[in-house]
């Protein structure tokens, strides 16, 4: 059942390069509507096929349902049909997830991102029931998000196989880096895999992933676009070079502070969002953390294009 994910003659349902987009806030912590639309349009203009809206990096968990729906709508208005919009509607409460999914579908998004229920630590049977219950209730394609580092439990290959025949469950964002388990799922199902680890984009694509759902790609869209395109066309030399050049940027964005904090700070330096504000429990990077981020970027040959 394995599909040729890197076949250049076809484009995966959600595209190959997607960003887990931040939600710009004002200095007062309110959703900055203009900045949301400007950023969404900029990301598409610079090579993104799709946008994950109100995911973890979008700080959905500190936003009201009304704010999440508004951001879905703002991004939809900004990019129209130029890119796929995948709405983060996951939570650790199945009933709440169903409510968010209904609101996202009313906006007309192209996909729904369902994270593994976190904190509850359900059994594998519970995970399957959660995902199936939501998929049964919607008509929009679903991307499952497997991130045991946050959720506390992984999704096993057996659960993926059980869910793979559901007509609405089509893709996986994998952030657990279990290549053996992913290989088994790719071999035995038609689920489309996306890397959820920015620094592992090249190995994920090499083993059959269709593309990347990234935090760092919103900081430097063109370079991730080039990395993906080089891998898809078989230009391994270029792909390896870009993989190494991007490593310090990935560290700056993903290793020093939470991704939303770092991405907002760097894009504020770039002049692409007006404020780096985040909502509690996130806080701004400290001076020491900022210094480490700056040092990471200075160690990258592409750093001059990243910060002012």
Write the layout of secondary structure elements.
Elements: E1 17-20, H1 33-45, E2 50-53, H2 65-79, E3 84-88, H3 94-107, E4 111-115, H4 124-137, E5 142-146, H5 148-151, H6 157-163, E6 169-174, H7 179-188, E7 192-195, H8 201-206, E8 211-214, H9 221-232, H10 236-254, H11 259-269, H12 287-298
Parallel strand pairs: 1-2, 1-8, 2-3, 3-4, 4-5, 5-6, 6-7, 7-8
Helix pairs in contact: 1-2, 2-3, 3-4, 4-6, 6-7, 9-10, 10-12
Overview of this structure, please?
This protein has twelve helices and eight strands. With 308 residues, the chain is an alpha/beta fold. Helix 8 links the parallel strand 7 and strand 8 (211-214). Helix 4 (124-137) packs parallel to helix 6 (157-163).
Quick recap:
The protein is α/β, with parallel strands linked by helices. It has helices spanning 33-45, 65-79, 94-107, 124-137, 148-151, 157-163, 179-188, 201-206, 221-232, 236-254, 259-269, 287-298; strands at residues 17-20, 50-53, 84-88, 111-115, 142-146, 169-174, 192-195, 211-214. The radius of gyration is 18 Å and the shape is globular.
